[in-house]
Amino acid sequence: METVALAAQSREVTGKKVRVLRQKGEIPGVVYGHGVKPAPIAVEKVALKKAYAKAGSGTLVDLSIDKQEPLKVLFHEPQSHYLTGEPIHFDLYAVKMDEEIETTIPIVFVGIAPAVDELEGNFIANKDELTIRCLPANLIPNVEVDISILKTFDDQIRVTDVKLPSSVQVTDEPEDVIAL
Fold first, then answer.
1. Is the pLDDT of residue 15 over 90?
2. Can you say whether residue 158 is alpha, beta or left, with left for phi > 0 and alpha for psi between -120 and 50 degrees?
3. Rounded CA separation 59/10 (Å)
4. How big is the chain by its Cα radius of gyration, in Å?
5. Which of 71, 80, 90, 180 is least surrounded, with the fewest CB atoms within 10 Å of its CB?
6. Under 8 Å CB-to-CB from 74, ≥6 apart: which residues?
7. Integer Cα distance of 140 and 132 in angstroms
8. What is d(CA 96, CA 135) in angstroms, rounded to the nearest whole number?
9. 3-class DSSP state for residue 87?
């Protein structure tokens, strides 16, 4: 499994004073989780955007705070500015490698649905992510769903139709419709 590296610094600035950090090109965040006391940190904005683009919420990140031993973390609820879309705050969840975690992974639709291409129907995606449970080492970045099985307007793809490794369990309802 691929991991992403991210370097951070401890920060003393909290509250409304974090505006100064953002003006310097740093984004405030918090690390919390198993065996980790919640700690405020700051990361350079460009490095944070690259790490989040590569990792998303389904890939482990090696976070080194003040050049210490890296922690295994996952991005959890990054916040963006409502107008610009620029990151303004992020949370990192420290994980234990021997304990199962629950997270969401994006669904990537592949292929062409004959019902759309030949019968001129509309493709409707009811879900764009799945909630999974697994050990951190078994995390997958996304799940591909082949929509070429949608041959008629009555065909549906349900959660039970998604093929995942045996080490990953889906916690969504099995009969939930993903696409039709």
1. no
2. beta
3. 23
4. 19
5. 80
6. 55, 57, 58, 59, 60, 61, 92, 93, 95, 101, 103, 136
7. 10
8. 9
9. strand
Are 11 and 69 in contact, with CB atoms under 8 Å apart? no
pLDDT tens for 20-30 read 888 899 999 99
Amino acid sitting at position 6: L
What single-letter amino acid sits at 30?
V
**How many H helices and E strands in the chain?**
3, 12
Cα–Cα dist 39/33, whole Å: 10
The Cα–Cα gap between 37 and 43 comes to 18
Count of CA atoms in the C-beta half-sphere (13 A) of 93: 16
2-12 as b/e, with b when 16 or more CB fall inside 10 Å? ebbebbbeebe
Percentage of the chain modeled with pLDDT above 90: 50
Residues 10, 173: Cα–Cα separation, whole Å? 41
Copy the structure tokens of residue 104.
């969401």
Closest of 35, 178, 9 to residue 98, by C-alpha: 35
pTM summary value:
0.78
Cα dihedral sign for 79, 48, 141, 95?
negative
Instruction: Dig out the tokens for 50 from the structure.
Output: 């690259």
